[in-house]
Amino acid sequence: MLASLDVVVLAGGRGSRLGGVDKPALLYTGVPLGQLVLSSVRSARRVAWVGESTPALAGKAWPDLVSTREQPAFAGPSAALAAGLTALDSDPAPFTLVLAADLPRVVDAVPELLHAFERVGGGVLAVDETGRRQFLLAIYPTGALRAQLRQFSENGPLDGLPLRRLIDALDLTEVRLHAGLCADVDTAEDAARHGIPVPTKRDFTP
Predict the structure, then answer these.
(1) DSSP readout, 137-196?
(2) 179 CB burial (10 A radius; 0-12, 13-18, 19+)
(3) What pTM was estimated for this model as a whole?
(4) SS3 of residue 31 by DSSP
(5) Eight-state DSSP code of residue 119
(6) Which DSSP helix (H) or strand (E) runs through 114?
(7) Residue 158: how many CB atoms within 10 A of its CB?
(8) CB atoms < 10 A from the CB of 115, how many?
(9) pLDDT tens-digit series, residues 19-68
């Protein structure tokens, strides 16, 4: 199933609520979050990584990974999504799996999302047990997503545009996932909940 999908991983945030740390480099069960998200899509058709390069991702394990960056940097998830789709512009897949790079349970979440996608036969969006939609754990119809981005970009820059405004017009089936699978790491409390150590500035002092 993954072999028929393109994947865009959004990893370009500032991590400001965590003191500016590189969130994809945070360790969950001893493995960098960025490495976990890429491991979950190893058999995908193509993968675009949108964000700064992360040392934990270097090496032969991902020789075909397309790396790009939203312009300007830190312009937000809508601009990052546009950059990722542009990087995969040639021969796009009918559907694109979009993931955040800070989902600790991504290895468990992706198979459930793929199962729902196969059952529904169309776009699917993960929803947690409280009803909160996780826009960065979803499979979108590529053509419709590109059309939305094009429409909004014609009316102004995508900088700071909430993903919700892009996604609300798309025909998606909401998929309720088990507790914790949708959770990302935005705050120290989120990190603590998952047992993720967050380095402080003094950790980097020579």
Answers:
(1) EEEEEHHHHHHHHHHHHHTS--TT--HHHHHTTS--EEEEPPTTTT----SHHHHHHTT-
(2) exposed
(3) 0.92
(4) strand
(5) H
(6) helix 106-120
(7) 21
(8) 13
(9) 888 899 899 999 999 999 999 998 999 999 999 866 555 454 565 689 99
